[in-house]
Amino acid sequence: MRDSLDRRRIIPCAEAMSARDRFWCETAGLVLVRQRPGSAKGVMFITLEDETGIANLVVWTKVFEAHRRIILSAGMIAVKGRVQREGEVVHFVAQTITDLSHDLASVGQRDEAFRLPPGRGDEFHNGPPALDPLCGAKPRSFLGD
Length: 145
Known about the structure:
Layout: H1 2-7, H2 13-17, E1 24-35, E2 44-50, E3 53-59, H3 61-66, H4 68-73, E4 76-86, E5 89-99, H5 101-105, H6 123-126
Parallel strand pairs: 3-5
Antiparallel strand pairs: 1-2, 1-4, 2-3, 4-5
């Protein structure tokens, strides 16, 4: 999806979080956490993640009310806003929010193949491991051989 996001001038989360204070930009990612603490006077905090890292969003009450449906239901969003730095603490203050769930759902239908490298549990491609690295024992087969 990064090529598609780059064409729309949506920067990675890590780039947004490392930008200078008051820098205006647009970033996007999967919604990991939505928090609206009672003590925050209606402010919502959202954590996004993309392939480069996370972005901590601050969504003021007016912005939340204008984008309520998207904020509460979307699995992936794009956010236009500005970076706010206070010492080591960095937030991204949201101004507009766009639902990218449809773009996320289309990932499996794109032209380029997305092959995952075989993992430790992928015995079909790799065969069974010789020794378990955690305890040094040979793995047991539950297939009856």
